[in-house]
Amino acid sequence: MSQKLLNFGIFCFFASFDYNKKNFAGYDLKVAIIGAGAAGIMAAITAKRINKNIDIDLFDANSGIGKKILASGNGRCNISNSQVSEKNYLGENPEFVSYALKQFTFNDFEKFCKSIGLLLDIKETNKVYPLSNEAKSVVNLLQLTLEELDVNIYTKTFIKDIEKIEDKFDIKTDENEFKGYDKVVISNGLGAAPQLKANESGLDFASKFGHSYNITYPSLVGLQTSEVYGGKLQGVKKECNVSLYIDGNLEQEIYGDVLFTKYGVSGFAILDISQLASYHLSLYQDVKIAINFFPKINRNDLGDQIQSLFKSVPNQRAVDLLTGMVSNKIAPVLLDICKINIETLARDINAKQIKAIAYQLNQWKLKVIDTQGFGHAEASGGGVRTVEIDNRTYESKKCEGLYFAGEVLDIVGNRGGFNLQFAWASGYLVGKNLAN
To answer: In the chain, N or C: fewer CB atoms in 10 Å?
Structure first.
């Protein structure tokens, strides 16, 4: 493909959106974007491509941009999901995301990626990765695009305070003061991954300008349980059905792998169910999970299979025979829970005990007492209340010229690229409106 044809394709992509066609020649607009994650980067690129006369300062506390992008997908970068809807999000008002997702669809995101030289690998699961299979390539291309557009990037710069004097914003760090911004974007996320300098300063800034926020909580995170069995089950992993109970009521069911740990449970099924579990923990509700090790076998049939197993080899210990259907770490703990001596022979297990074993394997209940915290969480729930944000522009309803994008808002996505897709989409809307 010739360079002219490529440039024309890029032009057509951005021209396809309903941009304001105002002539910006000689128009001086100064913008600060706090947080150089996916949302902040997208806002900067979008705004600069529409209005080249806009002066953008992009700030981040880290030594480089896109640190959470680099960490996503275990370094492979689960950059998006090809099938996204508001059903993939949680928050006080999940439908808030609908307009952004319609204005910046996955197809639009794919075109954007091509415009910066990034090709995508769309999996059958709808998860999307860079074709390079490296998160670093994503960040490198975003960095090159920002530099080409003359966005001013300030790394290792932690913003301490924002003030608005008349119609201009001033920003303060420990060492410097940046003055005279017409617009400010808060896109520096929340507390997930503090090792990447994540913090909740965005909530402090929001509060200063009259915003309220909902309590934050770790999301997509391992769960601590009151029952840890002395660490005897640590390392056991199995695909199971996991049910979430809130105050005794069934709230959610998810199938996937469960990993027992020294603190409780993890694994993909647990990360998925942790979103609601963590939210209800933050409200001090009773949270329990029930693990079904054999979801494709009903309890009665499972009992019959155990009985048949014990009858076939009656002179062996029951604990040894059980290792033919569950992990050798699970078998002794299972008998202990059912109050059966570990030395009991299969022939001496009665019908009531078999029923108890089958029930435990079908409903292995654990009380959730906490999560592994923000340090182990992939995302944060809670944040700035979306009722106070214009869902079409992402501008504050409390303060003209103040915008929010990404995780700092009370929106959190499911596992599988949904959080990044919301970051891209919200950043796009912000960028579009920064330039107008």
So the answer is: N
